[in-house]
Design brief:
By secondary structure, the chain is α+β, with helices and mostly antiparallel strands. The relative contact order is 0.20. The strands form three sheets. An eight-stranded mixed sheet has the order 2-3-4-1-15-18-17-16. Strands 6-7-8-5-11-14-13-12 form an eight-stranded mixed sheet, covered by helices on one side. Strands 9-10 form a two-stranded antiparallel sheet. It has a single domain, classed as Roll (2,3-Dihydroxybiphenyl 1,2-Dioxygenase, domain 1). It has five helices and 18 strands. The longest helix is centred in the C-terminal third of the chain and has 14 residues.
Length: 294
């Protein structure tokens, strides 16, 4: 893969995602689901909020309860958050556990760059669990990475477990938040924001209805689509769904360059104690955190 040059308009190649923050109507039910079906462990719980992950390292998922919150369809917001496991064997373990716990699965796909399982939590938050193929196997066409939605050979995937233990201890160390996929109101506005203001690079697009962006040549850290309708309004503040997700910046200079791009575009932001908070044109929240301070 060709090495990407750093510039003031492109995010550093070491940029990655940190955690996703969701609103749920019932914290106990949500925590139980993520522990039993997906193998998360609770890192901490305080009041109406709980943070989950692999049991060590960074939080991956932060859930905040809002009693009475409901899923509101046909809006911008979360399409799915995507948990990246470190191996094909780890993905097979997840699938095996979903079968054992009789957890509903909404789909499975081979995307050429990855293999993925799709489902939703009890309150309608979309989830993808996936593993990447080695980047040396990715294919490119006209300067963009080739991705597709093909049937996943789940029997072959489960063969990865044939010599493994019968019990599963949960998500392995090395599991991360791989990407976010969002419903938006406009692809052109989103492309301008994520490319020109944030500094991601466009990696692929689907017939003007979806675009995929990344730093460092990854297939995508952020995907956006208008599948809920062009012009879809944001959900109400008390709805189930995305509160915000975090992007980990490589250093303080990256934050300063990001601020300069946002100010040049006239985009509002908040420089909070915990990080730089901004909303995309569809009002999806993003918190940028300097990696060294995380």
């Amino acid at each position: 893969m060709e090495r990407i040059n750093q510039s003031s308009s492109i995010l550093h190649a070491d940029t990655r995602l940190g955690s996703v923050h969701l609103t749920v109507p019932d914290l106990d039910e949500s925590v139980a689901y993520y522990r039993k079906s997906l193998g998360f462990q609770v890192h901490w719980r305080e009041g109406s909020t709980a943070a989950l992950g692999t049991g060590e390292g960074e939080d991956l998922l932060v859930l905040t309860e809002r009693a009475g919150a409901v899923h509101v369809p046909r809006r911008s917001g979360l399409y799915h958050f995507a948990i990246l496991v470190p191996s094909r064997k780890a993905l097979a373990d997840v699938l095996w556990n979903l079968i054992q716990t009789e957890t509903p699965i909404e789909g499975m796909a081979d995307h050429l760059v990855s293999e993925a399982i799709y489902l939703s939590d009890p309150h309608g938050n979309g989830i993808e669990i996936y593993r990447d193929r080695p980047s040396s196997e990715w294919q490119y066409e006209n300067g963009t990475v080739r991705m597709a939605t093909l049937p996943l050979d789940y029997r072959d995937l489960l063969n990865e477990r044939k010599d493994g233990p019968l019990q599963w201890t949960g998500l392995p160390h090395g599991t991360v938040l791989g990407h976010m996929h969002l419903h938006v109101a406009s692809i052109p506005e989103s492309e301008d924001f994520y490319r020109n203001q944030i500094g991601f690079q466009l990696m692929a697009s689907i017939q003007g209805s979806a675009s995929f962006f990344s730093a460092g040549g990854y297939h995508h850290h952020v995907g956006v689509n208008t599948w809920n309708g062009v012009g879809a309004p944001p959900p109400p503040a008390d709805a189930v769904g995305l509160r915000y997700f975090t992007v980990l910046l490589a250093n303080l200079e990256e934050k300063n360059r990001l601020i300069a791009r946002l100010e040049e575009a006239g985009t509002n932001y908040e420089d909070r104690k915990e990080g730089l908070f901004v909303r995309d044109p569809a009002q999806n929240g993003i918190l940028f955190v300097v990696e060294a301070a995380f």
